[in-house]
Specification:
Length: 663
Amino acid sequence: MEAGDEADIYDGVRAQFPLTFGKQSKSQTPLEAIHSATRRSSQSSLSSSPLSLSSSKNNDSNLFPSLSSSSQASLNSLRNRNPSSSSRQSTGDFDDSNPKPPSDSVEEDAIVGPPLPPPNSIARDDAEDGDDGGEMIGPPPPPPQGPVDDDDDGDLMIGPPRPPAAINSDSEDQEDEEENRYRIPMSNEIVLKGHTKIVSALAVDHTGSRVLSGSYDYTVRMYDFQGMNSRLASFRQLEPFEAHQVRTLSWSPTSDKFLCVTGSAQAKIYDRDGLTLGEFVKGDMYIRDLKNTKGHITGLTCGEWHPRAKETILTSSEDGSLRIWDVNDFKSQKQVIKPKLARPGRIPVTTCTWDREGKCIAGGIGDGSIQIWNLKPGWGSRPDIYVEKGHLDDITALKFSSDGRRLLSRSFDSSLKVWDLRQMKKPLQVFEELPNHYAQTNIAFSPDEQLILTGTSVERDSSSGGLLCFYDSTKLELVSRVGISPTCSVVQCAWHPRLNQIFATSGDKSQGGTHILYDPTLSERGALVCVARAPRKKSVDDFEVKPIIHNPHALPLFRDLPSRKRQREKILKDPLKSHKPEQPITGPGFGGRVGATKGSLLTQYLLKQGGMIKETWMEEDPREAILKYAEAAKNDPKYIAPAYAETQPEPVFAKSDSEDEEK
């Protein structure tokens, strides 16, 4: 055979395989091992059997650990092209070491004569003919495969008991579905760490590729599932306002911008990469009427982007107002909403939210009342729905259902209430014993809205940690409680509809993180993308030694001595070595020196500048200045003349010694 023909044959065979086949690649950790490492401890016993089954079932993949999934699929397709050969190979009739022609195998497999009776009938005939006393030739027949009564087990069981039959994975999946009919993805868990205090804000974009987390440590961390590896590190960290806690984060409907609400009076807008686009103006705190201010005057409490319009956002503040803003105009708000109060004063608005269509606004007030406004033409600050005593304490979160008929409320009074918007006099259900110590504790729906989930805080005297509670929205009863952290409280929670993964933030005074619950069989992308991506290994070429620069002229031995002229010039520049006198001080004095001021008092300075005080003492003669008071002192003596008026009316002056010497 010529070399060209061999090359053509090789190219034809090689074309059946993917490009990655035959190439040496780095050893990768099996995905089953990764999922077993991230599996929650509460379900470790249930997860052991599926892993063993998958490993025993996929023996072909274990033979080629370095091949990718596409290579293995191509090999399986090539192997299954001849079904007859594959069936024979599986039954042991085909041997690669000693191949036989197909006709021989068919002849050997052919049965000559009548068919053999079934084994059950043979065993039954042997039992009936037991009085023949014939000897058993060969090994004993296998036990019958049919059902055997419990009374006969002791007579037919020979040797040790048989091992239990392998559980079918399909039947096990059915049992799991029956056990978890709500299909909550919580078999595995990872934690996004990095914060040093409790995580109080959470936002996941609509595509599920980026996660934002804000904390009481004044920072916002940005995570990207597509760019993260198994280290789960954030790619950017922001500090919106110095020494202000991050309270709320919200993505725009197009996920190209996000809103950041902190404890300051000004909310900020960032783009998708974390660059600042602008901040809203702060109002004048000395104006009493809040409608006349251009913005909030005290710290913000909550904020949310409009679910439909990408230019509109809603904020609430401790100044007792809600404001609607346009992101294209940071200088003033579009609308100011003043809630209805039972008595005059300022009560903070603790939370706010939109409904799914953006046609209603709900606000939770610090006095426990719930107020709802419909955005219809000509609407104002008067609420359409007002519940005066919705809760006994501050309301931390409100949530509308997708159909707009129900409202969920969460409060500091350790309760969660379900309301019917058509009848708000009394809640449909009240779930109690839900400790809440953080003003950002929220509520969330599952994607199909069959479940309601919320987090709980850790109490001092309680043995339970932070929990994530699930409630049935139809039956209004508790479904499950999932322990997130034994020592940290759970604040924010979310169930992403596309990823089918549950996010829960937790933390305390010294640490904080975002827990992601998922199931490899139910969830998509998100955590599954980054948890299987190993971090980049450091290469030898990454090490770079700092270069050592040898400059002999910089050493003292090789320096040129400066000339005397340069030495003198250098000494003259030094005020201490040159004994330079101190310069006069202009302005107020300091360091024990009196400054040359134009006057110590403001009045003197103004009079001098106005020309009312003139300084002419430098032009006057001191003798003439004294003698001008001589006549006044002679006519009206005050001290010396009255003392000698009686004893010495005539003044006697001392004689000069110089006059005696002259004589």
